[in-house]
Design goal:
The complex is a heterodimer of chains A (249) and B (535). By secondary structure, chain A is an alpha/beta fold. Chain A is 35% helix and 26% strand. Chain A is built from nine helices and ten strands. In chain A, strands 6-7-8-3-9-10 form a six-stranded mixed β-sheet, sandwiched between helices. A four-stranded antiparallel β-sheet of chain A has the order 2-1-4-5. In chain A, helix 3 packs across helix 4. The relative contact order of chain A is 0.17. The model of chain A has no long low-confidence stretch (mean pLDDT 86). By secondary structure, chain B is mostly helical. Helix content of chain B is 73%, strand content 1%. A two-stranded antiparallel ribbon of chain B has the order 1-2. In chain B, helix 5 crosses helix 7, helix 10 packs across helix 11 and helix 16 packs across helix 20. The longest helix of chain B has 32 residues. Chain B starts with a helix and ends with a strand. In chain B, 41% of the residues are buried. Classes of the chains: A alpha/beta (249), B mainly alpha (535). Chains A and B meet through helix 2 and helix 3 of A and helix 15, helix 19 and helix 25 of B.
């Protein structure tokens, strides 16, 4: 059995003739806080969708927590938590009702699910009222999505832009929760465009560009020569071009 | 024109065939069937008007045009599909002149009355052929009459959409519409108060009314005053339409739909919550969790609630006049099976917002069904059970309301209705599971005027229902052939057994199709619409 939380070999995904993910190899050690970076359209979300079984891969091998995907899909799903880029919230339920529903879908007893839902609502500072999710702000929706990923106490978190739209207080709270989870042995696989978050939280990083991993390793290795992560990122993805002014702008 | 062209182009690009070929093919088939029927009706109208005598023309055409107006204005409400419309929430941010947006909105009203255009074209052509009329009088009043209907429909739509968006108002409004339609008909059919209504046909054919004015002008009779009246009505409709459109532009939907801040746990709320928790006492998770989630979600979905209210109000509106009063004697078969008929009608109406597209209101959140460690079979079964629960709740309400209208049914009739509805639902849910996976489409839970299916799709569904319900029909045939209730129930049990097999086969098919095309399914449910929300 592999000791890696995520082990990916030659992963491929095509949309028509275009390769969205083109032979990705990736190793995410257990207990790590792993940043998965890349410019827009690089293949980050597609990779996460394949890792969670939402989209079938066109080639390659995926092992999650030592289990092959998709052969042991159900077992893998029980042990992972996802915060997706798109909303997976049911707009017509209240936050607490939704969390209870998710808990029960992951096999928790109803009472346990209700109790954990209440705890998570408190932890993430979500008002336990009659307000339905459809009326939540974007930041609150992200908090509920995060709470939903925590309710079954997973070993591995896959998070696609979890801090997008969240205010500073909420982001701090979420970061503290995630750091605590890693301290307790969980693995976090995170995509974000906010490089400061990666610098503060992640110990390992991989950069994907045009469907291929262009750099992977410890954070310090990437920032060789004392440059900032932003400079290193721009250099690695080859976007370091002079900005030309438009005449009319 | 640049604004109009930009909106229409954005919409056309949003509706590209390549985006959903299956949907396009289905739309083509249903469109052909639906408009084929109306073309046939238009041909009949053309031949009838071509040979009609002047007296008949003066009598028929005003009434016919009244029918056109009623259809154009009322059908979108009755069928719960108000046609394509500008999504003002998306367009409000741009500095487009409101007048231009209103112009596009008025043009979009053609989507709810395209059938009427076919009829009007046939009628106009017939006046050219009729030896007693001069056809060249007809096109101008016909065009103005169409404009009048478009403007009126635009105003009505804007007004209704705002009213129906208000919490609790929408259900009351639907019920009021039902009463406005139903009560006079009820008294008329009971023979009360009819003395005051003699000559109503002459009253509605008075030159003053827009339909009559258009008819007289088209026939070349009193052309100048008729055109004057028609122009006046059109100006009024324009004022109404534009005014309502402006109010919709300033409408704060979020505020209208917001949950009141009052968070007190009332006794009623506790009872409702206990009812929602009932599935947990009957089934185990995940089935119970899914049923509970569906029951809660649907009960809070404005669009579902509206159709639910329509199920027991409009159903009665359509069928009740046939079974009460003097006409009931002519329809003894209908009278006997009235309750069953109206309940099956409600079952079909609920289909568009539930079982035909059961992932519709979940939209992108449907991906949770593929993320959670549960089988999709349990998900579909849970959704079906919740649909069935609401179908039977609707049936119970219908039984209660019909008894209010002095139509008391015995226990046998109620038992028969419950059994027939159950068997019919089995076939509908089986077909619905397949269609939900093959033709998924995200639905806005708050946009009450958006249809789960277009009127054309509903038409096809109404054509397919008889096919799907043949086993239930055979049970009735057995009753009449053998004159035995026992034979009916034996045949119905057979239909239920076949239905169960069909349901399981359809379930297997839907589950395997969903697993194969899960990515596409989620994509279709998450797809955002263009600047025009099509029905």
């Amino acid at each position: 059995m592999s000791t890696a939380a995520i082990s990916v070999r030659s992963l491929r995904k095509y949309y028509g003739n275009k390769a969205a993910v083109d032979g990705v190899d990736l190793e995410v050690p257990r207990g790590s806080f792993f940043g998965f970076l890349g410019p827009n359209g690089a293949g980050k979300s597609t990779t996460i969708r394949m890792l969670t079984g939402l989209a079938p891969a066109d080639g390659g091998e995926i092992e999650i927590l030592g289990l092959p995907m998709p052969r042991q899909e159900l077992e893998i799903k029980k042990r992972i938590g996802l915060v997706p880029d798109e909303s997976l919230l049911f707009d017509r339920l209240t936050g607490a009702e939704f969390l209870e529903f998710v808990g029960r879908m992951y096999g928790l007893e109803r009472r346990t699910a209700i109790g954990r839902a209440r705890d998570l609502m408190d932890l993430l500072q979500l008002a336990n009222g009659r307000k339905i999710i459809g009326e939540y702000s974007k930041g609150m929706r992200k908090r509920v999505a995060m709470a939903a990923s925590l309710i079954h106490h997973p070993e591995l978190f896959l998070m696609d832009e979890p801090f997008e739209g969240v205010d500073a207080v909420g982001a701090r709270l979420m970061k503290d929760i995630l750091t605590d989870q890693v301290r307790r042995g969980a693995t976090i696989f995170l995509t974000t465009h906010v490089l400061e978050v990666v610098e503060r939280l992640c110990d390992r990083v991989a950069i994907i560009n045009e469907g291929r991993i262009v750099k992977a390793g410890a954070l310090e290795e990437l920032r060789a020569g004392g440059e900032s992560l932003e400079d290193a990122f721009v250099r690695i993805v080859g976007a370091n071009q002079d900005v030309e002014r438009l005449e009319w702008l | 024109m640049a604004v109009t062209a930009a909106i229409l182009r954005a919409q056309l690009l949003s509706m590209r065939v390549g985006a959903n070929r299956r949907g396009a093919i289905l739309s083509l088939i249903t469109g052909t069937v639906w408009y084929g029927m109306w073309t046939a009706a238009a041909c009949v109208a053309f031949f009838a008007l071509s040979i009609a005598e002047p007296g008949q023309l003066r009598q028929w055409i005003p009434l016919g045009l009244l029918g056109v107006t009623v259809y154009w204005q009322a059908m979108p409400i009755l069928s719960a599909t108000m046609g394509a419309s500008l999504d003002l929430r998306k367009l409000r941010i741009y500095p487009a002149p409101h007048g231009k947006l209103f112009y596009v909105e008025v043009l979009l009203r053609l989507t709810t009355g395209a059938e009427m255009l076919i009829l009007l074209a046939a009628g106009t052509a017939a006046l050219f052929r009729n030896p007693f009329t001069r056809g060249w009088y007809a096109p101008l009043p016909a065009a103005v009459f169409i404009l009048f209907n478009l403007l009126l429909a635009s105003g009505t739509r804007s007004l209704l959409e705002r009213l129906l968006s208000r919490r609790r108002v929408r259900e009351v409004l639907i019920f009021l519409l039902f009463m406005v339609w139903m009560v006079p008909r009820f008294f008329l059919l009971q023979g009360e108060g009819t003395a005051n209504l003699h000559g109503w046909d002459r009253a509605v054919a008075d030159l003053f009314w827009p339909w009559s004015a258009a008819a007289y002008a088209a026939l070349g009779v009193r052309v100048a005053p008729a055109l004057l009246y028609l122009a006046g009505w059109s100006c009024l409709a324009a004022w109404f339409g534009r005014g309502q459109f402006e109010r919709s532009m300033r409408w704060d939907l979020t505020a209208a739909e917001a949950t009141p801040a009052d968070g007190r746990a009332t006794r009623a709320r506790a009872v409702i919550d206990a009812l929602f928790r009932l599935p947990g006492r009957i089934w185990r998770d995940p089935l119970a969790a899914i049923v509970e989630k569906e029951l809660r979600s649907l009960a809070r979905t404005p669009r579902y609630r509206m159709v639910f209210v329509m199920g027991f109000s409009f159903g009665l509106m359509v069928w009740l006049p046939l079974v009460i009063g003097a006409r009931a004697e002519k329809h003894t078969a209908l009278s006997h099976h009235f309750l069953t008929l109206v309940c099956v009608y409600a079952l079909t109406l609920l289909g568009q917002v539930s079982y035909w597209n059961c992932f519709g209101f979940d939209r992108s959140a449907a991906q949770i069904y593929f993320l959670a460690p549960q089988s999709l079979r349990a998900i579909l079964l849970g959704k079906n059970i919740a649909s069935l629960a609401y179908i039977y709740l609707e049936t119970a309400i219908l039984i209660a309301i019909t008894s209010l209208f002095r139509l008391r049914f015995g226990g046998a009739a109620i038992a028969e209705t419950l059994c027939v509805v159950g068997v019919c639902a089995l076939y509908m849910l089986a077909m619905g599971n397949v269609s939900s996976v093959q033709y998924p489409r995200g639905l806005s839970p708050t946009r009450v005027s958006q249809g789960g299916a277009s009127s054309r799709f509903q038409a096809l569904v109404f054509l397919l229902y008889p096919l799907g319900l043949i086993p239930v029909g055979l049970a009735y045939l057995a009753r009449y052939a053998l004159d035995s209730t026992l034979a009916f129930y034996v045949a119905l049990a057979g239909a239920a057994a076949i239905g169960a097999m069909v349901y399981w086969i359809a379930m297997d098919s839907a589950v395997s199709a969903a697993m194969v095309r899960r990515e596409r399914l989620i994509g279709d449910l998450s797809a955002a619409e263009g600047p025009v929300s099509a029905d």
